[in-house]
Each structure stands twice: as structure tokens, then as C-alpha cells.
Amino acid sequence: MNDMNSAFRGGVDLSSLANRVVKDKLGGKEDTGKVTVPAFSVELVEAVVRSVIQISGVVPVIVSFYSPSDQSSVTLTNKLEKLVEQYAGKWFLAKLDISGNPQLAEAFGVTQSGTVAMILSGEPRPLFQGDQTEEDLTVFLDRLLDLAKEQGLAGQLVIGDAPEQEEVELSAAEQQALDAMDRGDFQSAVSIYEKELASNPGNEQLAERLAQVKLVARTYVLSLEKELASEPKTQLEVVRKADCFMAIGDAESAFELILGYFDQAEDKKSLTNHLLELFTVAGKNHPATIKARKQLAAKMF
């Protein structure tokens, strides 16, 4: 995990983001792979960071760090603006003026204009520094899209007005759970879904919703920045940090952390159960879940 990742995570309200993702799931929204955006690029300022993170869960996000006083960085950004239109929604461009937004640039760990980074599923990664030819950028972008597809990230952006949200008819229990979450009473929401699941054992949708709400209940009061920067030494600390990885959508790091600690765990049964619950949060078809299940099986048998 690089410095850019840990710094960036501290720059946004990730707990609130996780909460909203859970509430979207409870509200019955389905992931169609398409997201409506006003444009394929945006000037990255603090007010839109959260939206950009969410877009990175559908398509790759390229972040171009420029300064008006650095012509080469402006030229590079202009090339990316041209290319993002040509790719028509396969990826998204976020342009960050480091001279006008120094704190946001610092959150990425970037101090030099002409730097390019990417965000995949909420995970920022450094790419390269300095101007490139359009041909080289095209080759790079094609490879990036292939990588994104391998990680299950193959959505599509479409330009238009945000669609009106359809009214979803919720059960009385679902409405009670949402009302409890709106009050910040996540434990009550957990209890509601535990009761629902007990009445409907084997219901995968209820199990997923319960796991999501339990994750938010555990992480809501934590300092994600502090936990993600920590070096856990006990099983409790490992589980807590893994939960925080999951809260920001980084399932791969959450699973790797737990599996890396598994052999020395003082309570392997408890750790296994927690990992299985995080599999439910991520979804059984998530590439990280499929990979981690195989690793867990190898350790257990």
C-alpha cells in the first residue's frame, strides 16, 4: 500500500460514503453498469471527490494534476480531455489544479504538476509523470481498460441529466431499518435484519444487506484515516483495519490483511467467520472474493 493511498483515504468522509452505499442497496437500486454524468471530465475539487470515487466503481478514473503556470502539464491534460471524449464513457477524467487546490493534491501525495494517477474502485494508484504523446496515451489507456475488465470494472458512462429516482416500495422492516440508519442507530438496523433473516433463512439478499449494515455499524464510529494508517498486531486490530478497508470498497486489501494474519491468529474460527461475512459484503462474484475463498480453503485444509 503506497503513501498516495493512505493519504487520499484521509481526505474524504469515507464512513459517510460507505453508509450511503449501504442505504442505496437497501433502497433496492440495482447496478446496471451504466452511470449518467453531465460530462466525461470534471475539475476535481473537494465538493466532487465523493462522486468521483463512486464513478471509479463503474469505470477507471484518470486524475491529471496540472498547474496553469506549467504549460507541459496543461498540454498533457488537454490531450487527456481529447481522448476521454473519443473513448465515450469507457473512463472518466478528473483534472486537478494543484496550485488552486494544494490540500487536495497533498491528499493524493502529489506535489508536482504533470503527474497522472488513476482510481479503480475507490483505490488511487500513481501512474506516470510528464507529458506523453497521444499515441502512447492511447496504448496506455487500452491496457488500463483491459486491467479494469479483469477486475470486474467494465461499466459505461452516458452523458445526460441524472435520472429521477424511482420510488421503491419497501417492506415495513426495510423502512424501519432505513429510518434507524437515518438516525445513526445502526445497531437497531442490524437487529431488524437479523430478525428478518431468521424468518427467511437462506435469503441471500437479506444476508448481504445484514452484512453491509453490520459493517457500517462497526466502522461508523471509527477514524478510518487512523485505522488505515495503523500497523495491526492483534487479531482485533487486524479485523478492525480489514473492516475499514471494506468500508472504502477495497475488498482485496481487506482479504489480504486477514489471510496474511490467519496462520498466527489466536482464534481462527472467529477470524474465518468474520472473513466469510466480508465475502458477503463484497459479493460472491467479486474477483477478490473468488481469489480469497481459494486462499482460505488452502489454509484450512
Which features does this protein show?
301 residues, alpha/beta, Glutaredoxin, 2 domains, five-stranded mixed sheet, two-stranded parallel ribbon, 14 helices, 7 strands, globular
Query: What is the strand arrangement across the widest sheet?
Result: 2-4-3-5-6
* Cα shape: globular
Could you tell me the CATH topology label of the largest domain: Glutaredoxin
How many β-strand stretches?
Answer: 7
Examine the secondary-structure arrangement and name the CATH architecture of the largest domain: 3-Layer(aba) Sandwich
> Which range best describes the helical content: under 10%, 10-25%, 25-40%, 40-55%, 55-70% or over 70%?
55-70%
**pLDDT < 50 stretches:** 1-32
Number of helices in the DSSP assignment? 14
How many structurally independent domains?
2
The H/E string reads HHEEHEHEHEEHEHHHHHHHH
Structural classification: alpha/beta
**Beta-strand percent range:** 5-15%
Profile the largest sheet: 5 strands, mixed
The CATH superfamily title of the largest domain: Glutaredoxin
Mean pLDDT: 82
End-to-end CA span: 29 Å
